[in-house]
TrEMBL record:
<dbReference type="InterPro" id="IPR029063">
    <property type="entry name" value="SAM-dependent_MTases_sf"/>
</dbReference>
<dbReference type="GO" id="GO:0008168">
    <property type="term" value="F:methyltransferase activity"/>
</dbReference>
<feature type="region of interest" description="Disordered">
    <location>
        <begin position="196"/>
        <end position="219"/>
    </location>
</feature>
<dbReference type="InterPro" id="IPR050508">
    <property type="entry name" value="Methyltransf_Superfamily"/>
</dbReference>
<dbReference type="GO" id="GO:0032259">
    <property type="term" value="P:methylation"/>
</dbReference>
<protein>
    <submittedName>
        <fullName>Class I SAM-dependent methyltransferase</fullName>
        <ecNumber>2.1.1.-</ecNumber>
    </submittedName>
</protein>
<feature type="domain" description="Methyltransferase">
    <location>
        <begin position="48"/>
        <end position="139"/>
    </location>
</feature>
<dbReference type="InterPro" id="IPR041698">
    <property type="entry name" value="Methyltransf_25"/>
</dbReference>
<keyword id="KW-0489">Methyltransferase</keyword>
<dbReference type="Pfam" id="PF13649">
    <property type="entry name" value="Methyltransf_25"/>
</dbReference>
<keyword id="KW-0808">Transferase</keyword>
Length: 219
């Protein structure tokens, strides 16, 4: 979370992108398919956490339209303002998910679409373990990331400088399983955001379920 008047690097990037981010990724069929996967399996009126909720579309908008209760969390105040305006049926909070109090076993689903990439590998692993615990037994987990074996890579994303850390696809799957989740499906795609400064990027969409019991301890 940003300290005082200092914004986190992720907040600065997504404050600058604003609604351009939504436009760039609007054509993602894999994202829509992931949401359809959730909608087919969620009980009516489910409680869903959307980590890195962005502009609220498509994730929060799709889930609330189906009658689910959504809490979106994002580090970017610009994104939270846009999301609150576009999807008033959902609740949005500006903050770092790593510092947000969450009750174990309290959620029916957690969505984490491209929200891990500006965290360290240890932070990503710790967060996935924590998010696994907030799911009720049988709760669903949807994650999307760019599956590259990179750590602290300085690059450019839609004209913004970013420092990216990620895992290769097999390591992402292992991370989710080590958190105590059963991996139910995976889809790998190549997607080019609709932005003049964007380049094609590999994407991994993964779905899992908490079967019960405790997630693996950190260590």
């Amino acid at each position: 979370m940003a300290d005082g008047n200092r914004r986190s690097p992720a907040a600065a990037v997504f404050d600058a992108l604003g609604s351009d981010y939504e436009k760039a990724f609007a054509a993602s069929g894999a994202h829509r398919a992931s949401l359809a996967w959730l909608l087919e399996r969620l009980p009516p009126g489910s409680r869903v956490l959307d980590v890195g909720s962005g502009t609220g579309r498509p994730t929060a908008a799709t889930l609330t339209a189906a009658g689910h209760r959504v809490l979106g969390v994002d580090v970017s105040p610009v994104m939270v303002e846009i999301a609150s305006r576009q999807v008033p049926e959902a609740e949005f909070r500006c903050g770092d998910i790593r510092g947000l109090p969450l009750e174990d076993g309290s959620l029916d689903a957690v969505c984490v679409y491209f929200a891990l990439l500006q965290m360290s590998r240890a932070e990503q692993a710790d967060l996935v373990r924590r998010l696994a615990l907030v799911l009720r037994p049988g709760g669903l987990f949807a994650l999307a990331t760019v599956p590259l074996d990179v750590e602290g890579f300085d690059g450019v994303f839609m004209g913004q400088g970013v420092r990216v850390t990620s895992f290769a696809a097999q390591a992402v799957t292992a991370l989710v399983r080590e958190a105590g989740l059963t991996v139910l499906s995976e889809e790998s795609v190549l997607f080019t955001p609709a932005h003049p400064d964007a380049t094609p990027e590999p994407q991994l969409f993964l779905h899992g379920r908490r079967e019960g019991g405790e997630a693996a301890p950190a260590g």
